[in-house]
Amino acid sequence: MADHDSPEVKSESQTLNWVMLKKLTVIAVAMFGFGYALIPIYKQICELTGVNILTPKDIDLKEIKNSQIDMSREVTIEFDANTQGPWRFRPTVSSIKVHPGEMAQVVYEVVNKQSYKMDAQAIPSYAPQQATAYFKKMECFCFKQQTLEANEARQMPVTFYIDPALPKDVKTITLSYTFFEVGLKQQDAKAGL
């Protein structure tokens, strides 16, 4: 019976270990190569089968139309601005016509005519009131307070769409903002604070 500590057993054990290490190295390299090659193979398979392709190459993106837009009618959106404070606040256009479901953007301008920084907030209102639920703002300066430096002028966008579920008898919607100062900045400035 051979002794486990004999040089022959150690040599045979080392040889087997080296062979196993070589096999494992070859398997690891093959797995890495397969994983690396799988990316272009996956893309080719997806292109051939039409799976996982968001926009086919032969379609011009300008030709894709939003199927949620109701092209059968137009709604006139009128814009109004009210202020409570010594600044200028107004829309850059008085009205636009949109199809329900169509994304639109208008810009309001504000000028702080004061000699100090102020925080202000805009509050929207809608007429007729039933249109409120159908007027969907995606981006609006009214979502947060605005800080305006002394004599600063700023253009502020409103991005919106009218829900196609708007009742058909509503032909005109008025979006009105009231822009007012938040806090006591005016009083602080007069007091020299």
UniProtKB/TrEMBL annotation:
Query: Which compartment or compartments is the protein found in?
Result: Cell inner membrane
Membrane protein topology class: Single-pass type II membrane protein
Where do the TM regions start and end?
A: 20-39
Q: Which domain of life is it from?
A: Bacteria
Sorted alphabetically, the Gene Ontology cellular component annotations on this record are: plasma membrane
Q: Does the keyword Transmembrane helix apply?
A: yes
Q: What are the record keywords, sorted?
A: Copper, Membrane, Signal-anchor, Transmembrane, Transmembrane helix
Q: Name one GO molecular function term.
A: copper ion binding
What family is it from?
Answer: Belongs to the COX11/CtaG family.
Its biological function? Exerts its effect at some terminal stage of cytochrome c oxidase synthesis, probably by being involved in the insertion of the copper B into subunit I.
- Protein name per Swiss-Prot or TrEMBL: Cytochrome c oxidase assembly protein CtaG
What organism does the record attribute this protein to?
Undibacterium nitidum
